[in-house]
């Protein structure tokens, strides 16, 4: 039997990168998937690809920063497929990377609101829906930044958001355990995605440290992860195979953060 047979999943940031790979992997394991993204076109393309391969998927356009939009999307997904069991709160941006003294309030807010507040706004409306079916699994995409890596000046807003997501995940895990809802946070290192399209840099040379990483970096494999390698972990955390795992961060970075803390 497929590992996610009978389960319904919402994937935010499903139009690209890690979210798209996870949506495909969920469907391959028998799950029905709502591919949610602020960009409607790529979300529809991923959902259409899943349907063409025989899977069940719909695309929903929603901005995770907007409580009404993301709430409506989560409820629509559950209504369409008859329930909700898995939430992959994954949408995120690198945002503006620059010296702290030059960062505008709007730049700070964009990064915090998308990554951290967006996680809260995605999971909140899912709670009553998962409770109605006796529980579920929430997976949050944080990062090694903010949780294991501190050597990238300019990432202050991003790292703060990613640390906040991990703390929020632990708090939610304890609170929601009474309803059999598990909450885990993944912390990827470098992954080959399109996140550069949502990364802006200004005057980083003013605050850089002269750090040299080893030639074969990260230590295992010496290359960034493929999104599918992250998706394999997300499927495990979504499935009942991880039924005793909740309230933890899982680092998936080929040991890069052990060399570059
Ligand atoms: N790529 C990496 O190296 C890396 C490393 C660690 C963590 N992450 C995290 O992984 C997650 C996914 O990123 P990715 O690398 O797949 O990037 P990506 O840019 O390829 O995909 C992210 C998707 O999220 C969507 N998105 C952005 N803002 C949104 C919003 N406000 N509402 C709804 N959707 C929104 C984008 O349209 C895009 O389709 C992010 O949370 C990111 O911080 C990425």
Present the secondary structure layout.
Blueprint: E1 8-12, H1 17-28, E2 32-37, H2 40-52, E3 56-61, H3 67-81, E4 86-89, E5 95-97, H4 105-123, H5 126-131, E6 136-141, H6 156-176, E7 181-188, E8 199-201, H7 227-238, E9 249-252, H8 256-259
Parallel strand pairs: 1-2, 1-4, 2-3, 4-6, 5-8, 6-7, 7-9
The chain binds nicotinamide-adenine-dinucleotide.
The CATH topology turns out to be Rossmann fold
- Strand-residue fraction? 15-25%
Strand order of the largest sheet: 3-2-1-4-6-7-9
Low-confidence stretches: none
Q: What's the end-to-end separation, in Å?
A: 41 Å
CATH superfamily: NAD(P)-binding Rossmann-like Domain
Q: Given this structure, which CATH class is correct?
A: Alpha Beta
Q: H/E order of the elements? A: EHEHEHEEHHEHEEHEH
What does the radius of gyration come to? Answer: 18 Å
How many H/I helical runs? 8
CATH architecture: 3-Layer(aba) Sandwich
Mean pLDDT: 97
Helix amount, in percent? 25-40%
Question: Could you name the key traits of this structure?
Answer:
261 residues, binds nicotinamide-adenine-dinucleotide, 7-stranded parallel beta sheet, Rossmann fold, single chain, 39% helix
Structure in words:
The longest helix is centred in the middle third of the chain and has 21 residues, at 156-176. This protein is of the alpha/beta class. The strands form two sheets. It has a seven-stranded parallel beta sheet with strand order 3-2-1-4-6-7-9, sandwiched between helices. Strands 5-8 form a two-stranded parallel ribbon. It has helices spanning 17-28, 40-52, 67-81, 105-123, 126-131, 156-176, 227-238, 256-259; strands spanning 8-12, 32-37, 56-61, 86-89, 95-97, 136-141, 181-188, 199-201, 249-252. Helix 1 packs parallel to helix 2 (40-52). The protein has one domain: NAD(P)-binding Rossmann-like Domain (Rossmann fold). It contains eight helices and nine strands. It binds nicotinamide-adenine-dinucleotide (NAD).
């Amino acid at each position: 039997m497929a590992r996610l047979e009978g389960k319904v999943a919402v994937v935010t940031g499903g139009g690209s990168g890690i979210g798209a790979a996870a949506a495909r992997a969920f469907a391959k394991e028998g799950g029905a998937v709502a591919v949610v993204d602020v960009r409607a076109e790529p979300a529809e393309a991923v959902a259409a690809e899943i349907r063409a391969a025989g899977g069940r998927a719909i695309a929903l356009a929603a901005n995770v920063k907007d409580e009404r939009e993301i709430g409506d999307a989560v409820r629509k997904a559950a209504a369409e497929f008859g329930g909700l069991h898995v939430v992959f709160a994954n949408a995120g941006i690198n945002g503006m990377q620059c010296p702290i003294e030059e960062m505008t309030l709007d730049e700070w807010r964009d990064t915090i609101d998308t990554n951290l507040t967006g996680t809260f706004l995605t999971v909140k409306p899912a709670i009553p829906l998962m409770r109605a079916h006796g529980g579920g699994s929430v997976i949050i995409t944080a990062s090694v930044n903010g949780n294991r890596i501190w050597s990238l000046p300019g990432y202050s807003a991003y790292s703060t958001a990613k640390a906040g997501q991990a703390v929020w995940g632990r708090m939610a895990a304890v609170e929601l355990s009474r309803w059999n809802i598990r909450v885990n946070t993944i912390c990827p290192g470098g992954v080959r995605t399109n996140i550069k399209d949502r990364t802006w840099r200004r005057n980083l040379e003013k605050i850089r440290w002269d750090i040299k990483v080893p030639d074969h970096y990260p230590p295992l494999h010496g290359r960034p992860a493929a999104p599918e390698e992250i998706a394999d972990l997300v499927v495990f955390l979504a499935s009942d195979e991880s039924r005793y795992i909740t309230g933890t961060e899982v680092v998936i970075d080929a040991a890069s953060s052990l060399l570059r803390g």
